[in-house]
């Protein structure tokens, strides 16, 4: 293996939410540990460049004219076991769907053989779709959760993995006691932390307030503090869920329930956040808690249309989530497109309600940011991944505009080519997928 790997060609990444940087004739130098050590633009001749640089033992990959590198996708919210039935039950709303599809499916993961088989498929599928980092919910079963960690490790994905917690308002066949939930979560965190990898992070994962007693939520926030690990859960997804939660905890709103159990902090991130008062959004901003926007799922379970602009306006970190299987697609390209539609729907709602005709839907540069660097910020990984700044890890997609589902008609600008990929591309446009400099998936 060469000491340095050099990529030469067009490089596209988000510098900020406003700005996408398109680097023509770019050079990225990646060291043997997968770290980007050099970024150069406008290099007319790679040989001349190398003559002036100290890199001697190199492997050079030149990208073709219709190819470019971009950062890998960050999926901030997905349920690994639910991939089993992705696309089913789309006639339900959240609480019925949980009863009818989710709980029976997840309870089967008591079998580690079943877990092994299912988790191999889902993690491989996410990687082939370019999801280099994923925040996973598993199930309540400690042994099956460990299997998910083993598979993620083996297949080379960067991931946050959570053992789900639920000690109330769940069916008899899929519930745990408060004590065993806390004990298994501790064992799970220690298992992940004992693995020889920096790519996998354990994340404390109460399913949502309805299925968690106060004692459990308090215990989980203690564990997150003790082991310095992040927290993920669901928040304000659907009206019935919100009403039930407020009634259950005698609370004025849903967000306060988590806050009262010390679950909101700068390492927490909440999926959905569709129906939030201004006061609740201010609380998230105050706690520096992030949001995983799951547009496909919000449409599919007809939960609502989340207005991402409200969070961005308050400086809240926002990333995208497929929410497999509330969302039916494992692809972050679909998450981008669903987010686009949700934002356009907000524009229509604002206009038709006469509220604000100046509402600006999300633009392409913002969509790219949310799917990469925005997601990295939500997970607290912004210094490691999300774009190609020097010093970050090489988590990347080698995009090939030919060979997938795109037709180039000639004369497209680079901006248009990026748009063609984001709106018309598919997994067959991904020649290679890299995590920490290593190849984790290639087009078949
Ligand atoms: Zn979810």
UniProtKB/TrEMBL annotation:
Cofactor: Zn(2+)
SUPFAM superfamilies tied to this protein: Metallo-dependent hydrolases
EC class: hydrolase
Catalytic activity, as annotated: guanine + H2O + H(+) = xanthine + NH4(+)
Domain Amidohydrolase-related: from-to ranges: 68-437
InterPro entries given in the database record: Amidohydro-rel (IPR006680), Guanine_deaminase (IPR014311), Metal-dep_hydrolase_composite (IPR011059), Metal_Hydrolase (IPR032466), Metallo-dep_hydrolases (IPR051607)
Keywords: Hydrolase, Metal-binding, Zinc
Listed Pfam families: Amidohydro_1
An example molecular function term from Gene Ontology annotations: guanine deaminase activity
GO BP, sorted A to Z: guanine catabolic process
GO cellular component: cytosol
Pathway the protein contributes to: Purine metabolism; guanine degradation; xanthine from guanine: step 1/1
Coiled-coil stretches: none
Cofactor notes: Binds 1 zinc ion per subunit.
E.C. numbers: 3.5.4.3
Keyword Zinc: yes
Protein's job: Catalyzes the hydrolytic deamination of guanine, producing xanthine and ammonia.
Assigned protein family: Belongs to the metallo-dependent hydrolases superfamily. ATZ/TRZ family.
Protein name: Guanine deaminase
Lineage, opening ranks: Eukaryota, Fungi, Fungi incertae sedis, Mucoromycota, Mucoromycotina
Name of encoding gene: PARPA_09068.1 scaffold 35524
């Amino acid at each position: 293996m060469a000491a340095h790997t050099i990529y030469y060609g067009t490089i596209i990444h988000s510098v900020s939410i406003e700005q996408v940087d398109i680097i023509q004739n770019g050079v990225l130098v990646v060291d043997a540990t997968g770290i980007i050590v050099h970024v150069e633009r406008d290099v007319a001749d790679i040989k001349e460049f190398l003559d002036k640089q100290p890199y001697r033992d190199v492997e050079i990959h030149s990208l073709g004219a219709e190819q470019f590198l971009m950062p890998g996708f960050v999926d901030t919210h997905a349920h690994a076991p639910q991939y089993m039935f992705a696309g089913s039950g789309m006639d339900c709303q959240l609480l019925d769907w949980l009863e009818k599809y989710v709980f029976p499916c997840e309870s089967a993961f008591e079998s580690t053989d079943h877990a092994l088989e299912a988790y191999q498929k889902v993690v491989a599928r996410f990687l082939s779709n370019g999801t280099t980092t994923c925040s996973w919910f598993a199930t309540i079963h400690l042994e099956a959760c460990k299997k998910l960690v083993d598979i993620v490790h083996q297949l080379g994905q960067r991931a946050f993995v959570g053992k789900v917690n639920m000690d109330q308002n769940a069916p008899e066949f899929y519930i745990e006691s408060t004590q065993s939930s806390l004990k298994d979560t501790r064992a799970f965190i220690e298992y992940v932390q004992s693995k020889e990898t920096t790519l996998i992070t354990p994340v404390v994962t109460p399913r949502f307030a309805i299925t968690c007693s106060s004692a459990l939520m308090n215990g989980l926030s203690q564990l997150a503090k003790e082991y310095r690990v992040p927290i993920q859960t669901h928040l304000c997804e659907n009206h019935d869920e919100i009403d039930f939660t407020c009634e259950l905890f005698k609370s004025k709103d849903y967000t306060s329930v988590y806050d009262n159990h010390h679950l909101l902090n700068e390492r927490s991130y909440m999926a959905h956040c569709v129906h939030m008062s201004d006061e609740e959004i201010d609380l998230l901003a105050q706690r520096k808690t992030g949001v995983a926007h799951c547009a496909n799922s919000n449409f599919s379970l007809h939960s609502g249309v989340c207005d991402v602009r409200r969070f961005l306006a308050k400086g809240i970190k926002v990333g995208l989530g497929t929410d497999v299987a509330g969302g039916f697609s494992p692809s972050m390209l679909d998450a981008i497109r669903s987010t686009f539609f949700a934002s356009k729907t907000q524009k229509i709602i604002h206009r038709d309600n006469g509220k604000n005709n100046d509402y600006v839907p999300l633009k392409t540069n913002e969509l790219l940011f949310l799917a990469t660097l925005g997601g990295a910020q939500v997970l607290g990984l912004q210094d490691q991944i999300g774009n190609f700044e020097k010093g970050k890890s090489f988590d990347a997609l080698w995009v090939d505009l030919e060979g997938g589902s795109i037709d180039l008609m000639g004369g497209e600008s680079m901006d248009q080519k990026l748009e063609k990929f984001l709106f018309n591309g598919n997994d067959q446009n991904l020649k290679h997928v890299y995590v920490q400099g290593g190849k984790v998936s290639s087009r078949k």
